[in-house]
């Protein structure tokens, strides 16, 4: 996937994974009750700063906070841009 966005410094561009549509017991979740995804795939990574070397790389699946990042929509696709510090874990 080619994205024309290059994050600056310690920022990361993430494509959120789709929200769950069905519970573990098989019940379908209506759109109004779906939670905001907290998992996504790293699409682009900044170069870091002299004090902060980047640890995530393109293609990593990561977990992030529910309210982390800034929502972006580019060519019909939703993305989040956030600082690497807002990422909680690499899965």
From TrEMBL:
GO terms for molecular function: ATP binding; metal ion binding; protein folding chaperone; protein-folding chaperone binding; unfolded protein binding. GO terms for cellular component: cytoplasm. Keywords: Chaperone, Cytoplasm. Gene3D superfamilies: GroES chaperonin (2.30.33.40). Signal peptide: none annotated. It holds the Pfam family Cpn10. It is found in: Cytoplasm. Together with the chaperonin GroEL, plays an essential role in assisting protein folding. The GroEL-GroES system forms a nano-cage that allows encapsulation of the non-native substrate proteins and provides a physical environment optimized to promote and accelerate protein folding. GroES binds to the apical surface of the GroEL ring, thereby capping the opening of the GroEL channel. Heptamer of 7 subunits arranged in a ring. Interacts with the chaperonin GroEL. Belongs to the GroES chaperonin family. This is Co-chaperonin GroES. It comes from Myroides profundi. The lineage of its organism: Bacteria, Pseudomonadati, Bacteroidota, Flavobacteriia, Flavobacteriales.
């Amino acid at each position: 996937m080619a994205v024309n966005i290059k994050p600056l410094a310690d920022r990361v561009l993430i494509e959120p994974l789709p929200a769950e549509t069905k519970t573990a017991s098989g019940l379908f979740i209506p759109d109004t009750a779906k939670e905001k995804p907290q998992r996504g795939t790293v699409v682009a990574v900044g170069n870091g700063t002299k004090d902060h070397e980047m640890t995530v790389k393109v293609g990593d699946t990561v977990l992030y906070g529910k309210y982390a990042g800034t929502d972006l929509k580019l060519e019909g696709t939703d993305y989040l841009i956030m600082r690497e510090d807002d990422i909680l874990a690499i899965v």
